[in-house]
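User: Modeling request: complex.
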Amino acid sequence: MEFWLTEEQVMFRDSVARFLADRHAIGDRLRARSDAAAFSDAEWRSIAELGWLAAPFPEAYGGIGGSTTDMALVMEQLGRVLLPCPYLSSVVLGGTMLLHCGSARQKERFLAKICAGEMRVALAYAESSAGSDLSRMAAVARPVAGDYEISGSKTFVLDGGLADCLLVAARSADGPGDGRLSIFAVPRAAAGIRVEPHRMRDGSETATIHFSSVRAGPEDVIGRPGQGAELLGRVLDVAAAMICMEAVGAMWAAYHLTLDYMKVRTQFGQKIGSFQALQHRMVDVYTQCQMAQSIAMGAVAALESDDAALRTRMCSAAKLRVGATARKVGEECVQLHGGIGMTREHPVGHYLKRLNGIRTSFGDENHHLQRYVACFDPDNYASR
Amino acid sequence: MADLDVTNRLAAPWLGKFREEVQAFLRAELPEDIRLAVSAERMDLSREQQQRWQKILARKGWACSGWPRQFGGPGWTIEQQYIFERETALADAPRPIVMGVQMLGPTLIAFGNQAQKDRFLPGIVNGDQFWCQGFSEPNAGSDLAALQCRAVRDGESYVINGTKMWTTEAHIADWMFGLFRTDGSGRKQEGITFLLIDMRSPGITISPIVTIDGGHEVNQVFFDNLRVSVENRVGDENHGWNIAKHLLSLERFGIAEVSRSIRSLLRLKRIATEPRSDGGRLLDSPWFARQIAELEIDLMSLELAEIRLLFSDEDGSEAAAASILKVRGTEVQQAILELMMIALGESAQIDPEYSDAEGDTWIATAYLNFRKTSIYGGSSEVQKNIVSKAVLGL
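Assistant: Request completed. Predicted assembly structure:
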């Protein structure tokens, strides 16, 4: 990304990197295993004060007036240190949904608070029987006296237990297909909501959330009723591109850890980095990191495009390639560490776990391959 | 949108007009027989075809696209060169002439004396003089500095004895630029001298080498008391290695052959969407669709990496960039040709040398021919050694 960043963006990225390097060594992720509070409110407030949450959003709604590129820069740096925090859920998913799809009132109501770190948002859309297949979604929002009553269960809601506000996808009218999906904003503390939190292998927090006749008003519908599938498509493209940038940060960090180790670990009387078989594998890791970074940056750049098909194609291309690469890089870095890489005390395995978590989040390779092939243009190459 | 131009460096309106001008020129001027040869993935155009195309380019002032104007190039910006390379590939116009235009010309511009520039550059621009490269030897391939072919100073001449191997187009070249051992006493990189040799001199024997695709591009060249005037030495005696290193780094642009691979991928997509005898299309097979999709994404990653790394202002990234782009570029290129060959089935496997079957044999010829790309110009393994040392610090 380096060479097309503005000077402000470079300064922003460097300040993010410096803050994280000073305060959040990889150790935080390791401690998170045993610590009940993997992430603290105080940390979130410092991050908010530094403007990371506000960076991508317009000034009119409490933002700093940056772009999705600023979001991508934060994601990449978070990936480097594996910091557990609800940035992806609240800022990327929640903030993007409200920015692109919310009414002016909703933006005032939610976005300013997200930017200030006063409200955390989570997006509840996947279901156990439907996965991320929106057309099979079972949750319903029944019209009741001008309001809605939402019922159903959502799985793997990222940071669902940490959120103040849930954006829930549900069918707002009877009938098949995904055309009638709507998105509702409801307080997590609302009556009828039950949260079962899960700690994931990679240290991230998800939740299964049960909705039982949860009341929402017409003013709580994000966008228009029935527009849910379109809004989710847009937001999940952004999520795919952003999580790719997180993966890029994590891959580079794992690469550097491994490279450093190869320069100090001695076997057979020499540094293991002197063996050509290992050198070539490490060059492959480096090359894969470069390729992954390139396609991830391409996806981030495509998010600015008005062409929805281009956005989808580039984001799926990136998620497919980065997903496969992330696994390979993570596994190679553990392998090249040898036995020490297998220990929980060593950071490298935690990168592997996060990279695998990223791989299955927001659509795995199979999902994105199908999506990519569906918009495959036989007469043209890529964006042509 | 004509490229994955995430940098917006190619988006300026004047560059758009330039692109249209290039496209119009190619539509009007590219001879059909040459276009057909290139569209069959042929790299080995005849001397006559290469010369004809070079003269068409020269008339337009577009010969030697990377050269400064004072030496007969168009003096283009890097963005213009990028666009020109892309559009010539998409039109199935020939690649630039490698030895003269891409290698020796820039080397003479950097290291040649005035007399050498005056004497040799015009012939490269107008396509009258063809060059070959005398670097590799039977026992000096990846380990180029181990070369042994001797040049012994005798008055105002060098006397050369020995042999050069894998010499591409030696059989159609007028001149050779080469590396010769003038001193064997020190480090092997020292004692190498860069000389220019008239291929019609007495004492040269050219022996053809037929490759696995059945083609004749490379040769072994033998020197028997060949005399070369000292005025044909580039740089100082025993200082040829640095010139060679510079020359080998020149091939940055297009080293990944992204543009050519885009063209090949489009050919592959065309084949995959044609109705087959059973009425279906190859693209409808999940396995095949997946292969093509992944290749396209690999190519997009490579294209973006090339833009990032080549247009990067960061110092020191260039050598590494060239190496990883070459490794990945040839992998992707070879994979596209391989899949195209599989797509065309058994009819591609008929040997055109013994059977009268034009049809699809071209693809197996190309597939076999392109196995060379990960071997020549520094094999993939040598490139990885370079990256390991220069970037990884191992």
